Amino acid sequence: MRYVGLVPEPLAQLPWRVLSLVIAIGGFGLVVLFSAAGGSVRPWALSQGVKLVVFFIGAIVASRVPESWWKAGAWPAYGGILLALLGVELLGAVSGGSQRWLDLGVIRLQPSELMKVAVVLAVARFYDLLPPGEIRKWSAIWPPALLIGMPFVLVMAQPDLGTAIMIALGGATVMFLAGIPLRLFAGGALALAVAAPIAFNFVLHDYQRNRVLIFLDPESDPLGTGYHISQSKIAIGSGGVWGKGFLNGTQSHLDYLPEGHTDFVFATMAEEWGVVGGCLLILAFLLVIRWGLGVGQRAQTRFARLTAASLATSIFYYVAINLSMVMGLAPVVGIPLPMVSHGGSASMTVMICLGILMSIDRQSRRPQRY
Fold this sequence. Notes:
Elements: E1 3-4, E2 7-8, H1 9-12, H2 16-36, H3 45-63, H4 67-91, E3 93-95, E4 98-103, E5 108-109, H5 111-129, H6 142-156, H7 161-178, H8 182-202, H9 206-216, H10 227-239, H11 265-298, H12 302-326, H13 345-365
Antiparallel strand pairs: 1-2, 3-4, 4-5
Helix pairs in contact: 2-3, 2-11, 3-13, 4-5, 4-6, 5-6, 5-7, 5-12, 5-13, 6-7, 7-12, 10-11, 11-12, 11-13, 12-13
């Protein structure tokens, strides 16, 4: 094995500029969780740090997997995770009124999180096999729609609106990048607009309908359903430009801000670090996403291009939806801020995305042999 200095070549070849940003985002998240707990590593910062280290190592391992393996395993992985979602419906563990987990004894697995990646790989594999001349035909539409629709319905039944939206957005992004005509997307948007009132009244649960109504009029129930959004806005606004200072937040420390360590962790951060801290965090995420899109541009195969660009866009969806949610620009749908919010599901998904992106990037940079 060759060495670059004292570092083994496989490690030296990793995109350390991007990984440094990932480490910085995760480290800053630990600082925020430390403050949210009142200056203690328990109960959130320590466990989050362990998870991030494990997922980071997993991403590096995934980066060594050849692109051909991701391609060959796309449909088997999708099928296995779809069966796991069916298993959740039959045998899943119930927590907080939702049935989203499979209790395997050692761990509790949430298959819907893995489906966010699997649906991108499966739809990208479909278009990789589809002849270019077929892209404007009906045969290019209904199979991917079925691949997206089956897990979407199963996840909605758990119920988990936020994850179902992420699955649908990930698959639809692949379809868009594959070259599906815009008029078909316009037709789909029109169909959704027609179906929205029906879904609102007969598909969504009561708490989900209330979240939509509160989003439209947050002041109608400031001490009830609208409490989260109201307190989040207060926390972000009170931070000002420079923030109140580390450990000096009041909304989270005095328990005015619910879920200040999970879905609304950005509000906790913005109160102490202000607009400057928030903008730097957003900039770090955007640089990671920009790198992921660049990997898609450099990729040498259709599967790699679609997969890389769609996975990078999925990370963007995580960040954009969470920030819109905590600022009152979108309904509360339970999307955490990856690598910052406490909890392993979103961080695991994003690290898997980064591992696949690094795998594709390594393949693209490898000298071609003729």
